[in-house]
Design a protein that fits this description.
The structure is a single chain. By secondary structure, this protein is of the alpha/beta class. The protein is built from eleven helices and 16 strands. The protein has a seven-stranded mixed β-sheet with strand order 6-5-4-7-10-15-16, sandwiched between helices. The protein has a four-stranded mixed β-sheet with strand order 11-8-9-14, covered by helices on one side.
Length: 346
């Protein structure tokens, strides 16, 4: 698997996902504002990967912060990173994890060198933890997938969307590693094309069979009996099991239920926002019109066209067969099962 993000030579290094699969290039961020810009412009994307980037962004920010005004600068670093993208709760979880460490170390009266080293180590630990969490999700989810056949996915919830291995694609990797020769049907995921650009490319790197579909082929393919299961990731899950994921996920879930196909969501516990009682409370990011009206800089709609471009939609829990986490599998009623999983250790 191609590394998504790493800490190297006191900088945050990320693969530039905007230009895949045409080019494989890396962006080097030497300050927190560059990390924030990388998150905002989708150099890096996917809720767990955004969390890793935010944690490292805090570390690189404090590395260059003015010691005489450290607390104020720390708050600015966290606020800048938190303002990048509103839907993925992992972003805020990671910032909060780094904030708690910062406050604890400041209370101990450690030197600035010790503080910086601890924050860097914590950022790297967030990355390592995420990879292990994804592998655990893969193990739990593998048992749910069919012994063979096709698994549909929407967007990219693979190694590129995480620290490594993936959530939804982690379940698929786990199934294959357990001896289930499943193949993948990847929806293209308009308008940013994460399915065609990223999921297909990533699976091809690992020699996992994958077939690309346009988004509007999902229903036909299901009705034709060519889909045995659906597995997707999530950017935020409300306490009642409603799931925010890439735009188009809701349509896939409704089609799956209509055709009697299990619809699974794979995500770490950090993606669950227990404070929200319903998916209606999840903020939905609205992105630039140009993502819809242009492809690679070329216009595909008349100039001045009015555009709606929500980056995510919410799938009500009634369409979700199960939610796969590193602590186990939750099923309805989700208000109870998700709470119980949240109390468990990994």
């Amino acid at each position: 698997m191609v590394p998504t993000i790493e800490w190297k030579d006191n900088a945050v290094v990320m693969i530039d996902q905007r230009i895949l699969p045409a080019k494989q290039e890396y962006i080097v961020c030497t300050d927190y504002e560059q990390v924030a810009d990388a998150i905002r412009t989708m150099v890096i994307r996917g809720a767990p990967a955004i969390g890793c980037a935010a944690a490292m962004g805090v570390a690189v920010g404090v590395l260059h912060a003015d010691e005489d005004n450290l607390d104020a600068e720390f708050d600015k670093i966290c606020e800048t990173l938190a303002a990048t993208r509103p839907t993925a709760v992992n972003l805020f979880w990671a910032i909060d994890r780094m904030r708690k460490l910062y406050q604890a170390e400041r209370a101990k009266g450690v030197t600035i060198e010790e503080l910086r080293a601890r924050l860097i180590a914590e950022g790297e630990e967030v990355l390592r933890d995420d990879i292990e969490i994804n592998k655990a999700i893969g193990r739990h989810g593998a048992a749910l997938l069919p012994d063979s056949g096709n698994v549909m996915t929407h967007c990219n919830a693979g190694a590129l969307a995480t620290g490594g291995y993936g959530t939804a694609l982690g379940v698929i990797r786990g199934a294959i590693e357990s001896g289930k020769p499943v193949a993948v049907l990847a929806n293209e995921t308009r308008p940013f094309m994460q399915g065609s650009r990223l999921t297909v490319w990533e699976l091809q790197q690992d020699d996992i069979p994958v077939t690309l579909l346009t988004d509007n082929m999902a229903g036909h393919t299901m009705r034709a009996g060519k889909v045995q299961a659906v597995v997707v990731g999530a950017d935020r899950i409300a306490g009642n099991g409603d799931v925010a994921n890439k735009i188009g996920t809701y349509s896939v879930a409704v089609l799956a239920k209509e055709n009697g196909i299990p619809f699974y969501v794979a995500a770490p516990i950090s993606t669950i926002d227990y404070e929200l009682t319903s998916g209606d409370q999840i903020p939905i990011e609205e992105r630039a019109a140009e993502e819809v009206t242009h492809v690679h800089g070329a216009a595909i709609a008349p100039e001045g066209t009015a555009v709606m471009n929500p980056a995510f939609d919410v799938t009500p829990s009634k369409y979700v067969t199960a939610i796969i986490t590193q602590h186990g599998v939750a099923k309805a009623p989700y208000t109870e099962s998700l709470r119980e999983l949240g109390k468990k250790g990994s």
